[in-house]
């Protein structure tokens, strides 16, 4: 994929999600913020200097994209999950092309087994990438009003469960007042630890667009203090052990109904 394609594809996902879902995936977004973001989506464009910070610019603002991972990451090879998934996807695409041009009829399936993932690795990746881009921002010489970081997590390897049934501090006491929140993909909006970390940057970044495999979260750092107060319980965050992604393709021959009917008529 050419430089800039993944950033533009991610921005299109964000734009479509904002227009489609509105308030249900927006956190601390006011009516004025909504108007600002709607206008931004109409005028945002790629940075003419594709090698420079930021990825996208608009009047009085910018969007910078980066990916994070919950897999182990080394300085030389990068994230293991992203690297392995990229290799797998390339092989899968070639296999699919061969399958579609062959005479084989039936079902083809391919499995990708997830390696080790952890919340600790996700935090490490998030903070490292965030601070690297903050360093780039501090060298940015253009005046801006609205700074946006578009953070993408494509591993889909972490599960979250609200610790509503955890220790209450009172022996034998329980109060199941509502159903426990549970997510099959990591949600930044429920992570008190990283939200608290982001509090320290609200003078530099106005919004975070957090993109995962299940959707997009729009978070205003201006109101992040209130977000944290509205999260009464912590969330347990862990990997889905032994997760496997399965891709299946089916190729069958659809009979020509009209020809068959004509054949039947000719036999009468």
Question: What is the secondary structure topology, with strand pairs?
Answer:
Layout (H helix, E strand, L loop, with lengths): L4 H17 L4 E2 L3 H13 L1 E2 L9 E3 L2 E8 L4 E2 L3 E2 H22 L4 E8 L5 H20 L7 E8 L4 E5 L19 E2 L8 H7 L8 E6 L2 E6 L3 H6 L5 E5 L4 E8 L5 H11 L1
Parallel strand pairs: 1-12, 4-8, 8-11
Antiparallel strand pairs: 2-3, 3-4, 5-6, 7-14, 9-10, 9-13, 11-12
How would you classify the quaternary structure? single chain
Rg over C-alpha atoms, rounded to the nearest angstrom: 24 Å
**Strand fraction band?**
25-35%
Largest sheet composition:
7 strands, mixed
How far do the termini sit from each other?
58 Å
Proportion of helical residues: 25-40%
Describe this structure in words.
By secondary structure, the protein is α+β, with helices and mostly antiparallel strands. It contains seven helices and 14 strands. The strands form four sheets. A seven-stranded mixed beta sheet has the order 1-12-11-8-4-3-2. It has a three-stranded antiparallel beta sheet with strand order 10-9-13, with no helix packed on it. The protein is globular. 25% of the residues are buried. The model has no long low-confidence stretch (mean pLDDT 81).
